[in-house]
């Protein structure tokens, strides 16, 4: 799928970003303009939002359902709201944030198509990351062993995984085309989130990162 590159975005990174060690955080920070408003869905312990606040001076909220993670967000000085994403984002107005982020959570959503549409209603731009089910290790386990894959990016066995809607890069891009969603940026990285995958990303990439907007 063609990727539309926008020009004029603020992509300056602080030294702290470069030395953080997680490439997915670095890529997201490159895509987020300084002093913007961010909503982080399924924010976990709030590490990403804290990182963006420290490096790009963003403001905003995290959305999380797990009580343990709520406490961790508070410890990380992150504003957090306890909401079940499967109930939607109806409490937020249209275009009320510059960016809505969904990091490694899309595959665990009961209605990923609706959640993507809601992200792009609430935010001017959406940033999503998810594990790529078409990675060669997953293909090998399915093709040779005939078993659901267990990999570094997908570490849970089928009977206890929170992932209920796994997809590939091609699947996600086909969904974007069907919904009229424009892909502005794409980066594919390995499971350690240390290096990018420039060639055959749907085969060799384990974590996909996309920045999207509506047409």
Keywords:
single chain, 215 residues, alpha/beta, Rossmann fold, seven-stranded mixed β-sheet, 8 helices, globular, disordered N terminus
How are the elements arranged and paired?
Elements (H helix, E strand, L loop, with lengths): L14 H4 L4 H9 L5 E5 L5 H10 L2 E6 L2 H9 L4 E3 L14 E7 L8 H11 E9 L4 H10 L23 H11 L1 E9 L11 H4 L2 E8 L1
Written description of the protein model:
The protein is of the alpha/beta class. The protein has a single domain, classed as Rossmann fold. 32% of the residues lie in helices and 22% in strands. It has 8 helices and 7 strands. The protein has a 7-stranded mixed beta sheet with strand order 3-2-1-4-5-7-6, with helices on both faces. The longest helix has 11 residues, at 112-122. The radius of gyration is 17 Å and the shape is globular.
Number of domains: 1
- Could you name the CATH class? Alpha Beta
Poorly predicted regions are 1-19
Secondary-structure class: alpha/beta
Strand content: 15-25%
Strand arrangement, largest sheet?
Answer: 3-2-1-4-5-7-6
The 3D shape can be described as globular
Distance between the amino and carboxyl termini: 15 Å
Portion in helices = 25-40%
Largest sheet: 7 strands, mixed
Number of strands: 7
Gyration radius, in Å: 17 Å
Average pLDDT rating: 88
- Secondary-structure arrangement, i.e. CATH architecture: 3-Layer(aba) Sandwich
SSE series: HHEHEHEEHEHHEHE
């Amino acid at each position: 799928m063609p990727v539309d590159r926008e020009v004029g975005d603020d992509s300056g990174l602080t030294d702290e970003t470069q030395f953080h060690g997680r490439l997915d955080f670095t890529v997201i920070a490159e895509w987020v303009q300084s002093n913007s408003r961010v909503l982080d869905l399924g924010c976990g312990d709030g590490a990403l939002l804290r990182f963006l606040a420290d490096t790009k001076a963003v403001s905003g909220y995290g959305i999380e359902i797990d009580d343990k993670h709520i406490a961790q967000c508070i410890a990380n000085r992150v504003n957090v709201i306890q909401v079940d994403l499967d109930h939607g984002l109806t409490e937020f107005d249209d275009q009320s944030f510059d960016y809505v982020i969904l990091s490694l959570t899309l595959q665990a959503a009961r209605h990923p198509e609706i959640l993507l549409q809601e992200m792009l209603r609430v935010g001017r731009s959406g940033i999503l990351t998810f594990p790529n089910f078409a990675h060669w290790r997953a293909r090998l386990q399915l093709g040779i062993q005939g078993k659901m894959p267990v990999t570094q990016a997908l570490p849970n066995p089928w009977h206890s995984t929170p992932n209920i809607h796994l997809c590939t890069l091609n699947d996600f891009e086909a969904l974007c085309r069907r919904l009229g969603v424009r892909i502005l940026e794409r980066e594919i990285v390995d499971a350690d989130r240390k290096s990018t995958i420039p060639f055959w990303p749907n085969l060799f990439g384990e974590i996909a990162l996309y920045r999207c907007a509506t047409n």
